[in-house]
Amino acid sequence: MIFKFTEENIKRIETARKKYPTALAAVMDTIYIAQEQNGFISNEVMEEIASVLGIDKVNVLSVVTFYTMYHTKPMGKYHVQVCTNVSCMLRGAYEIWDGVKDKLGLDHMKVSPDGKYSLEEVECMGACGYAPMIAVNEDYFENLNKEKVFEILDSLK
Ligand code: FES
Question: Which atom of ligand 1 is nearest to the CA of 131?
């Protein structure tokens, strides 16, 4: 399926491009915008990013596949990320992780059949001082325990 950036997103990419000395350096911003528009980064999306920036597709592919925040397949409406790295682990992250897996009936990088939830076990998200934490899409929730996490999940419509 052909992917084209919206006019508004082309303007955002042009603005991002001006922040960097080279087009290649703007690749992460551009992938982020693409994922916002499309939900995930397909082969066609990578081709469009490469075309818009005038870079090789392999440069897009290498960044997309290196960073876990970029998805190459559709995720759920609510992408739940549970950090189990050291600080969070020491403060109960695995109890949260196991609880969320059970509650949603999902495992790492799986999507619910209705497309509402997806689940990901993630490395440190830079909120160690407030461990344990989860993120739902781009919102962080911190100083959690399993019960608080369940309340958050129950509040998602
Ligand atoms: S270890 Fe979980 S946010 Fe850093």
Answer: 2
